[in-house]
Every structure is written in C-alpha cells, then in structure tokens.
Design brief:
The chain has 263 residues and is of the alpha/beta class. It is built from 9 helices and 10 strands. It has a single domain, classed as TIM Barrel. The strands form 2 sheets. The chain has an 8-stranded parallel barrel with strand order 3-4-5-6-7-8-9-10, surrounded by 7 helices. Strand 3, helix 1 and strand 4 form a beta-alpha-beta unit. Helix 8 packs parallel to helix 9. The longest helix is centred in the first third of the chain and has 14 residues. The radius of gyration is 17 Å and the shape is globular. The protein binds phosphoenolpyruvate and manganese (II) ion (MN). Manganese (II) ion binds next to loops. This is Bifunctional 3-deoxy-7-phosphoheptulonate synthase/chorismate mutase.
C-alpha cells in the first residue's frame, strides 16, 4: 500500500493549514519535551513569528534511563493544545502506547511514533485504526525495508495519512549522535508515495552542523525538516546539547530560507 507501484502520485497530507508532501516545504519545530506552559508558549510564539507551521513537543518521553525526566504526560498534552490553539499552529506529540491514543487524540493534531517504537506492532495497528495523521520515525537500527513495512502496518489498518522521517541511524561514528542517512531520502521518495522528512536534531545530536544537514535534506528531495528549539537549552530537561535557542533558530532558519533550496 505504501509503494509507488501501488500508487504513483505523491500523497499530500493536509492538517489544518499545514501541508506535508505538497508544493512547499514544511518545518516542524519546538522543544524536545514540553516542560511548562511558559516554556512552550515562548518558543511557539517565536516559531510562529518566523513562519513555522507545526509545533512539536514531547509529553510522553521515551527516555533511556528510568531516572531521567519522563515528560509531563497528559498535563503536557493540555499545554500543547493551549499553545497550539492560542498561537495558531498545528501540533504534534509522541505516543508510546495504544492506551494513550484516545486521550492524545483530544489534544494533538498529529501523532508521532518515535524511533524506539517503530516496530511496536500493536501501536502501529492502533494508530492505523485511529484515523489521525501519523509521523513515523525510523528506528535506531532499522533498515529502509523494515521502516517501509512499519508504515505498511498503519496503512493496512486503514490510515493512509502517514509521513516518514529519517532521524539518523546507529553506526560506529561518535562525533554525531546518530548518522544521518541522507540516501534514505531519495530511496524513500522513490519506493513510496508518502511525504518524507528529516529530523536534523536527533540525527546530529549537536547544533553546529544543523544548517548543513537541513540543506542536504532539502537538496536530496525531503518534503520538510524537524528541528528542536528551546528557549533555554542549557536548562532543558532532555536533549540539552542539540536544541537551538531562539536566536540560533533564527540564524538557522534564515540560512535555510536563503539557501535557494527552501520552497
Ligand atoms: C523525539 O523526536 O522526541 C524523539 C524522542 O526522537 P527519536 O524517537 O527519533 O529518538
Ligand atoms: Mn529530543
């Protein structure tokens, strides 16, 4: 169902005023985790002002250690809805279990399935039945075939509003958190009809090369990018090293928009 041989034309997913896979690029930006009302509203206002349409922020956080910040849960989703409605943005947040679907559906526009849950098959089936748009992240060590088949689960279960996002894979390289597999972009575009995005923040795990990674993503044919932005990254409760502050985001954003690649 996801393959180009099944459907040759590009799938365009419209969520409120955002369009994925259409004629213009889409940017998803926001903090790694929703930490407070003030934090999210501050960053949302700056992003909206810059022209970003989709606001991200995690409420259910998949953390490596159980001692790390686990997210604000439903409280966080309520903050997300308030910020997105007040500022006029489309919202996206991660869900980790089928049991979170009904609640999360009341507060967010798009469900994110994180890298760690790319092959959580019960979750894939459940979001398939939910009818909400889904952003599916590539697993930490998933091949493109496994990634595509994970998306197939969602379509097979009745939901064709699926977007794919490359977020770097595990390799021996340590200078980046993950290795951005840029070849995934043309391959996913060639093999599927779904929108394809690139998460530069989780790929690189550092701030200094994000603009180059984003330009590479657009040059390779991506339909958009994801980038983490926090009003005060040093104090962030997760992913402090890779989140841009608002000034850094403005520089990044101008660089990308003036690159001649952004449409
Ligand atoms: C995220 O985007 O919030 C996240 C946890 O990323 P990933 O699942 O790609 O690690
Ligand atoms: Mn993060």
């Amino acid at each position: 169902l996801v393959s180009r041989s099944h459907k040759s034309e590009d799938t365009i997913i419209r969520v409120k005023h955002a369009e994925f896979g259409g004629t213009s690029h889409v940017t998803i930006a926001g903090p790694c985790s929703i930490e407070s009302r003030e934090q999210l509203l501050t960053v949302a206002a700056a992003l909206k002002n810059a022209g970003v349409t989709v606001l991200r922020g995690g409420a259910f956080k998949p953390r490596t250690s159980p001692y790390e910040f686990q997210g604000l849960g439903v409280e966080g989703l309520k903050i997300m809805k308030e910020a997105a409605d007040e500022i006029g943005m489309v919202s996206i947040s991660e869900i980790m279990s089928p049991s979170q679907i009904d609640t999360a559906a009341r507060y967010v526009d798009i469900f994110q399935i994180g890298a760690r849950n790319m092959q959580n098959f019960e979750l894939l089936k459940a979001v398939g039945q939910s009818g909400k748009p889904v952003l599916l992240k590539r697993g930490l060590s998933a091949t493109l075939e496994e990634f595509i088949l994970a998306a197939e689960y969602i379509l097979y279960n009745g939901n064709n509003q699926v977007m794919l996002i490359e977020r770097g894979i595990r390799t021996f390289e340590k200078w980046t958190r993950n290795t951005l597999d840029i070849s995934a972009v043309p391959l996913l575009k060639q093999e599927t009809h779904l929108p394809v995005l690139v998460d530069v923040s989780h790929s690189a795990g550092r701030k200094d090369i994000l603009l180059s990674c984003a330009k590479a993503a657009l040059a390779a044919g991506a339909d958009g990018i994801m980038v983490e932005v926090h009003p005060n990254p040093q104090a962030a409760l997760s992913d402090a090293k890779q989140q841009l502050n608002i000034d850094e985001f403005d520089t990044f954003w101008k660089g990308l928009r003036h690159s001649g690649l952004f449409k």
